[in-house]
Amino acid sequence: MRRFLFALGGVALVAAALAGIMPAANATTGCVTAAAATYQHKFDGPGGNVTITAVQPLCEGEEQAFSLVSYTTRAAKFAVPQFVYDTDSAWIGADRRSVTLDVAVPGCYTQVDAIFGTGIVNEITSSYVYNDSKLGSPDGIGSRSTGGRGWYNGGSAACTPKPSVTFRSYCDGVLHTRLANAADAGVNASFVVGGKRIVVRPGKHADLTSRPSGAVSVRDNSFKTTTGSWSQPADCAPVVPPSTPASVPSSSTPTSTPGSSTPASTPSASTPGSSTPGSAPPSASVPGSAPSSAAPGTSVPASAAPTSSTPATVPSPVVSSPTPDDGLPITGSNTSGLALYALGFLLIGGGLVVVARQARRGRHSA
Questions:
Q1: How many angstroms separate the CA atoms of 141 and 114, rounded?
Q2: Cα 78 to the chain's mean position, in Å?
Q3: What is the tens place of the pLDDT at every residue in 88-118?
Q4: How many Å apart are CA 12 and CA 151, to the nearest integer?
Q5: CB–CB of 154/77 below 8 Å?
Q6: Better pLDDT: 208 or 344
Q7: Most distant pair of Cα atoms in the chain: their distance
């Protein structure tokens, strides 16, 4: 416990020693913190410049910002509304003891302010927004800089900017914004777009391009707000969806039989009235008979239309007596079919005789 108390006392002594060393070091180097620093300034309102110098240098890591801003206004004395015309800002720190700020001053009624910090207001509409932050103020932070009043009101003519804003949409989603000032304008036009200030001289214009997700708002120094948004131009080429291949309907009826070179739509040649009761169907092939107009193996669907422009009439078979079952085929003798079979057998027999004779001659010659 005693050792712990001794250690604690040692830490306290070291801390006290360091606390005493720091002020001594600051006193030796002569630097001060930004909160304690004082300044001197030389302000020229009509010329639009101010020079600010720290009485003592700031310590390492310390800095103080200053700004100078000019406005167009409606009178040679304080009046509202006022619109920002030009700005400049800089910082005093350990490595920079003095800064000079410059702004353009309009050739009309104007107000110029030198202030502590960077809190510049683009548009003054109702009150003294800077109050005691102006350099040379009798109270507040502004009193830490001496050198007279750091603000100016003057001018001898009304400010007559003639700003205009136009929007144009492109097919690729780009919105083109043109900021222009008429050639006969008496002062530069000042625009604020998305917090960014853009100045356009008389007779000139500035172009902006963007892909906005919503409306674009532009405020100008005529105290007018213009809003635009991207919309589909009328002359854009329509978006054509990819084409879908046409489906080929399947047919339940085959158009041809594999191995056949004859189109399926060609009907078999037949002579009306040639069929007799009990005869074989016209498409049947009888050995030894003349081939039909359809190629062997060709199947002609019953629904196929004949090639002639006049539909062929197929006579119904004449049945001599009804059968017990209408679904059974009609049977009977066929004289021409039997004759053809007999002729086929005779040809086969003649062929066998010729083959036997050739075989005998071959044995004799051997």
A1: 12
A2: 49
A3: 999 999 999 999 999 999 999 999 999 999 9
A4: 50
A5: no
A6: 208
A7: 154
Please give the model's pTM, rounded to 2 decimal places. Answer: 0.58
The whole-angstrom separation of Cα 235 and Cα 334 is 82
CA distance 352 to 342: 15
Residue 197 scores a pLDDT above 80: yes
Terminal Cα-to-Cα distance of the chain (whole angstroms) = 141
* HEC profile of the chain: CHHHHHHHHHHHHHHHHHHHHHHHHHHHHCCECCCCCCEEEEEECCCCEEEEEECCCECCCCEEEEEEEEEECCCCCCCCCEEEEEEEEEEEECCECEEEEECCCCCCCEEEEEEECCCCCCEECCCCCCHHHECCCCCCHHHHEECCCCEEEECCCCCCCCEEEEEEECCCCCEEEEEEECCCCCCCEEEEECCEEEEECCCCEEEEEECCCCCEEEEECCCEEEEECCCCCCCCCCCCCCCCCCCCCCCCCCCCCCCCCCCCCCCCCCCCCCCCCCCCCCCCCCCCCCCCCCCCCCCCCCCCCCCCCCCCCCCCCCCCCCCCCCCCCCCCCCHHHHHHHHHHHHHHHHHHHHHHHHHHHHHHHC
The answer to whether residues 140 and 131 touch, using CB atoms and an 8 Å cutoff, is yes
Higher pLDDT: 246 or 316? It is 246
Over 80: is that where the pLDDT of 144 sits?
A: yes
- Residue in the structure block whose two tokens are 């489906």: 247
Lowest-confidence region among 78-87, 184-193, 346-355 = 346-355
